[in-house]
Amino acid sequence: NDPDAQVFLGASYLEKIYEVGNGPEAGEWATKADKSFDAALALNDQHWDARFTKAVSLSFWPPMFGKQAEAINHFGTLIAQQETGPQKPSYAQTYLWLGNLYLQQGKSDLAKQTYGNGLKYFPQDEDLLKQLGLVQ
Predict the structure, then answer these.
(1) For residues 116 and 96, what is the distance between their CA atoms, to the nearest angstrom?
(2) Which of 5, 36, 67, 106 has the CB geometry, 3.0–4.6 Å to 10, for a possible disulfide?
(3) Each residue's pLDDT tens digit, 73-92
(4) Do 32 and 57 form a contact (C-beta atoms < 8 A)?
């Protein structure tokens, strides 16, 4: 019943994927990780680390599973949450990952807009600046 413990467990499952490599077993560990992040979010739907890590991990699933759309939704939820409170430097990563997902899908206009929105809050973030420069 501790969202932080669930996030730690999910992250541990993700680490296991590095040991087993690509293949069916990696999918099993990724599914376990996803369930741990869901458990953390069920306990606290505002848990930034749980939602961010879940979104990042979903973005690595092969496209045939369609997890990128779910990742985009989670990044969008994070951005909405982030914009209502004090900013933390790590929040720039949300814009970066979301923009990168859009770019992978060939949606360069959405990527450009996302990077630009991130730069409104984090004008000195080198990664956002670099990515925005790539889509200009």
Answers:
(1) 10
(2) 36
(3) 999 999 999 999 899 999 99
(4) no
φ, ψ for residue 105, nearest 5 deg: -85, 5
Which of 62, 74, 73, 133 lies closest to 104, judged by CA? 62
The whole-angstrom separation of Cα 76 and Cα 34 is 18
Give the DSSP letter string of 11-61.
HHHHHHHHHH-SSHHHHHHHHHHHHHHHHHHHH-TT-HHHHHHHHHHHHTS
Angle between helices 24-43 and 48-59 (to 10 degrees): 160
Can you give the pLDDT at residue 136?
81
The residue whose two tokens read 């985009």 is: 72
Torsions phi, psi for 21 (to 5 deg): 75, -175
- What is the rounded distance in angstroms from the CA atom of residue 61 to the CA atom of residue 30? 9
Token pair in block for residue 86:
């004090």
Q: Which residues contact 126 (CB under 8 A, 6 or more apart)?
A: none
Provide CB contacts within 8 A for 8, sequence distance 6+.
none
Q: What is the pLDDT of residue 24?
A: 86
